[in-house]
Write a structure and sequence with these properties.
By secondary structure, the protein is mainly β. It contains no helices and five strands. A five-stranded antiparallel β-sheet has the order 3-2-1-4-5, with no helix packed on it. The radius of gyration is 11 Å and the shape is globular.
Length: 68
């Protein structure tokens, strides 16, 4: 399990990025990767746990985001 904080989130597009605590580059994520329900919009600076996955283009992204 990895940890990071949300750096930005575009509610219209349903995408954002998370800054890993391990110092690596920011990772994109989609709202569908958020595991705490559709009612809560991801908030900037919220600490989350996540797993490393790949998007449809094969690029790294954050998946299975959960409140930490």
């Amino acid at each position: 399990m990895l940890f990071g904080t949300i750096k930005n989130f575009d509610e219209t597009k349903g995408v954002g990025s998370i800054k890993p605590e391990n110092g690596h580059n920011e990772l994109p994520f989609e709202k569908s990767a958020v595991q705490w329900g559709e009612a809560t919009t991801p908030k900037i600076d919220r600490r989350l746990s996540y797993e490393l996955g790949k998007n449809s283009d094969g690029a790294p992204c954050a998946v299975n985001l959960r409140a930490a």
